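User: Quick sanity check before I run a bigger batch. Here is a single chain. Can you write out its predicted 3D structure?
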Amino acid sequence: MAGYKLKTHRGTAKRVKVTGSGKYLRRKASLRHLLTTKSRGQKRNLKGPATVDASVNRMIGRLLPNA
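Assistant: Done. Predicted structure follows.
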């Protein structure tokens, strides 16, 4: 008899992508509002994805069991 299926945490699945090597990519914070007070360089450094910290990888892996 088969065990139960694990469900993907949909909120995490919408925010995190898995790379081919198994790392997790996330978006950087602080780029949604109050942008006029931030410098051009600060906004430029907030562009693009960032890798999830290694201390959180285990928790993300549990939230995304099928990824």
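Residues 10-63 form a domain with the Factor Xa Inhibitor fold (CATH 4.10.410.60).

User: Great, the batch can go ahead then.
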